Amino acid sequence: MIPVNTPVKHRRDLRKLINLKAMMAEAEAASGLGLVLVDACRTNPFSERLTRQIGRNIGGRGLARVEDTPGNVMVGFAAKDGEIALDGSGGNSPYAKALIAHLPQKNLEVRHLLGKVRDSVLQTTRQQQKPFTYGTLGGELWYLAGTQTGGVVEPVAEQTPRVQPVAQTRNRQSFEPEMVKIPGKNYEMGKHEVTFAQWDACVAAGGCSHKPDDEGWGREDRPVINVSWNDIQEYIKWLNKSTGKRYRLPTEEEWELAARAGSQADYPWGTNEIDCSRADYWQDGKSCHGRGTSEVGSFPAYGGLHDTVGNVWEWTSTADEGLRVLRGGSWNNKPWNVRSANRNRNNPTNRNNIVGFRLSRTP
């Protein structure tokens, strides 16, 4: 990384740069959580000049992804690999403004906090810049600004006893799904598919016995995959006990009504045409994302719901000849199979990397 206002005109000036791996090593030495936040543009303005001087390509737009993060270290970047960050207007960048807004907030677990920072930057930049987090954490919960009851300023790890309702030990909004009221109906649907971060909270609390594999694509804000219909019943039981609310899987009819967003066309945006700016599906021999699932909310919402087209098939509560109905299609399906009207079925014990779920709720 190149510090601000550092002149880089010759090969010897490369000694002035900061090695990110060295920073991660310092963070790993922390007694608990290691957090590295990098507000860097992720572009190299000197790449052409240095390529000529050094005789090899040292990288250009977007730079590479962060690999091999140490255990219990997270690295937050202003933009994901392959993309650049914007300067914005005023004295701070969009990423810095979002961090300033959210870091002081109490009752925000660090993964939820970074998710809110991401959402703020996406909104501010009109989807042009997507912050990205590398690395994974264990089951400990970390509140950078403490909690309302504890008032602790230092990062605090909080352990939850087995099967103890999480609502008693931390802010339940950090793992509860955001819901959308379906107009004219007495039920709500999840704005997003349930994520790995939300599922992992259940595992950490002892409410879920199955920890699904993420296929190496990442966890956090990606939709949870490799969970069976039966696994989900365990998750719902824990969530309802923790929140005192009535979450469930939607019926097939509820799912389609909500997913169509008032449209009778093939897709909820009102046409029979589809492209990779609207959904993650299979095109030209790969998913639109390029590698498995996309993070939830990566594509526009229709009727208030994200990713009802593609990304992952979604379990419903509807039974059909001993099987359970799936809707929505996945990143591995061609356009015909991700239409709002399309359906599939699966054995309730099966786990698959193209299948996840979203919840509904009766108020």
From TrEMBL:
Q: Biased-composition ranges for Low complexity?
A: 343-353
* Boundaries of every Sulfatase-modifying factor enzyme-like domain copy: 179-359
* A Pfam family that the UniProt record links to this protein: FGE-sulfatase
- Region: Disordered, residue numbers: 336-363
Chain ranges of the Peptidase C14 caspase domain: 14-136
GO molecular function list: cysteine-type endopeptidase activity; formylglycine-generating oxidase activity
Q: Name one GO biological process term.
A: proteolysis
Instruction: Kindly give the SUPFAM superfamilies that the UniProt entry links to this protein.
Output: C-type lectin-like, Caspase-like
Q: Which PANTHER family match?
A: FORMYLGLYCINE-GENERATING ENZYME (PTHR23150:SF19), SULFATASE MODIFYING FACTOR 1, 2 (PTHR23150)
> Which protein family is named in the record?
Belongs to the sulfatase-modifying factor family.
Q: What is this protein called?
A: Uncharacterized protein
